[in-house]
Amino acid sequence: MSLRRRLSTSLPQHFRFTSRSFRSLEFPRQPLRPSHSSGESHLIHGINVFHCPDAVGIVAKLFDCIASKGGNILGWMFSYLKTRKFFILEENLKVMQNMCLVCEFIFDPMKWPRTQIDEDFLKLSNMFNAKKSVVRVPNLDPKYKIYVLASKQDHCLVDLLHEWKDGRLPVDITCVISGS
Questions:
Q1: Tens of pLDDT along 17-57?
Q2: DSSP H helices in the chain
Q3: In this prediction, what percent of the chain has a pLDDT beyond 70?
Q4: CA 78 → CA 50, 126, 159, distances in Å?
Q5: CA angle (112 as vertex; 110, 114 as ends), nearest 5
Q6: How many CB atoms are located within 10 Å of the residue 108 CB?
Q7: Is the model's pTM score more than 0.70?
Q8: CB-CB contact of 52 with 125 (8 Å)
Q9: How far apart are CA 54 and CA 65, in angstroms?
Q10: What is the rounded distance in angstroms from the CA atom of residue 179 to the CA atom of residue 159?
Q11: What is the mean pLDDT of the chain?
């Protein structure tokens, strides 16, 4: 008996699926890619940076917030930041654990408007006493105007200017300053 056949007959019993094959399983969510024939809007890209003291459930709540609005997480980066605080009264040095989570996601602006995104992430930042919670939607937010400081090596500047010209950087480069 083939492995596929054994799995399709035994897994439904263990995981309480109905007795149908894997090909016919349907998931409760709508597909993320809207059909072009319907009048649905297109998906756009968002970025959230969340910096707060470490606690149980932060990542789960952030990811649930995005998923509950029909968004999809494209990638994320998580790191711990150690900060030292000196308490004069206790006369000792305490090390506090802080976490930083950067999450890239796509969403449908018709289902999750920009103002609602800000409100949802503000609730989460208040819940976890976040030091910083920034949400950027490059297609909807105004572009930052920046200066670029360049060194003698020009290859990094060339790569940066190519990405900017192709529209892959959500900034307006207003000036390039070089020391050479």
A1: 444 444 433 444 444 454 444 444 589 999 999 988 888 88
A2: 3-15, 58-68, 114-127, 155-165
A3: 68
A4: 10, 20, 26
A5: 100
A6: 19
A7: no
A8: yes
A9: 18
A10: 18
A11: 76
